[in-house]
Amino acid sequence: MVEYHQITSQDLSPSYEQVVQGFCLDFSSPLPQYDDEEEEHETRARDVSKALNESFEKAEEEQY
């Protein structure tokens, strides 16, 4: 009878610490997934930016 009482009176629910230890949180950023259209758009944007920089540098050189 005592053994039955000990078994039935045990708290079988996991403690907070046990639950938290069971979590595995991943805070890493997912790798970006590019499709071809996005890559082309980014390449064109870089080309425009490069052309603007070159044009600005050329205009500055002409001023001096």
Describe this protein's structure:
This protein is mostly helical and 64 residues long. The protein has a domain at 39-63. The protein contains 3 helices and no strands. The chain is rod-shaped, with a radius of gyration of 32 Å. The chain starts with a helix and ends with a helix. The model has no long low-confidence stretch (mean pLDDT 72).
The gist of it:
The chain has helices at residues 2-9, 16-22, 36-63. It has 64 residues and is mainly α.
Over all CA atoms, what is the radius of gyration?
A: 32 Å
Q: Which percent bin holds the helix content?
A: 55-70%
Tell me the overall shape. Answer: rod-shaped
Strand content: under 5%
Mean pLDDT: 72
Could you give the count of β-strands?
0
Write the layout of secondary structure elements.
Elements: H1 2-9, H2 16-22, H3 36-63
What keywords describe this structure?
single chain, 64 residues, mainly alpha, 3 helices, 0% strand
